[in-house]
Amino acid sequence: MDIEFKTISEFQAGKRVDGFFIVKKVECKVSSNNKKYLDFTLGDKTGEINSKLWNITDEDEKFNINTLVKVRGIVTEWQNALQFKIERIREVIEEDGVDIADFIPVAPFPAEVMYSEIMKYLSKIKNEDIKNIVEYILDDCGEALMYYPAAKSNHHAVRGGLLYHTTTMLKSAEKLCEIYDFLNTDLLYGGIILHDVAKMEEMASSELGIVSEYTIEGQLLGHIVMGVKKVEMAAEKVGADSEIKMLLEHMILAHHYEPEYGSPKKPMIPEAEMLHRLDDLDAKMYDMRKAVQDIEPGQMSDRIWSLDKRTVYKPLKEI
Prior knowledge:
Number of helices: 9
Radius of gyration: 23 Å
Strand order of the largest sheet: 2-3-4-6-5
Number of strands: 8
Structural class: alpha+beta
Distance between the termini: 52 Å
Order of helices and strands: EEEEEEHHHHHEEHHHH
């Protein structure tokens, strides 16, 4: 029997196929003859399929959700639905040359490019205390910054979403500062880079940028309080001016604006007001763009929770 590389949407009963998939679910079960097997839900960008690995050994129980795997098996049919009988399975290795974007939603730009954008704006900060605080916190983030999403399920909940959200806000801020030229760009750029950085400790994410849960500290404190603590620690380490530290902390505290969204203070300096507006604007534009991309021309989207349960319309013709 010939072996072919197939996506899930191309599966046909009776075919033996090779493929790369993401593990959406995996559970160890016991069959009717008292033998253990693994019950998988495998997925790619075209769909999902229930899959079985029979007669497993202890070594086979190593697979976790949100990991990429290479699989060989036979497509079968069970109760009028396709099923995949796994013959061989292993985790993906670098030599496979797999593109993560084929399996999960990712930011539209490479992480390295977006990180370079942040470094460009960091280099524009002239105040040494602000620059040193931001550099210290970014260095502490490590490689995780390259893949972390900005949310578990809301705006920018994609691999690299935190970088994407941050760079978009920085670009918008630069343009608006040409109009509102009384704003302190050092403070605004620093606040934008730092406002959501504690989400990396608020949420537990895999290297695929998929959040499995909120951490205990994230649930008890939230990224706003955790972000203020980061600035406090960084300012002490670099010997920053106390007022500079306080202004950055205020920007993080106020960026959600309302107490019910986690902000105990509303913006009391112009840069904090602009940070909030940019954050809110970028989140709403992201969700509107996604809604339009997911529907056909002339259609209305489903109600979107993050847009106060509004629907979004996609014009029938390009204007």
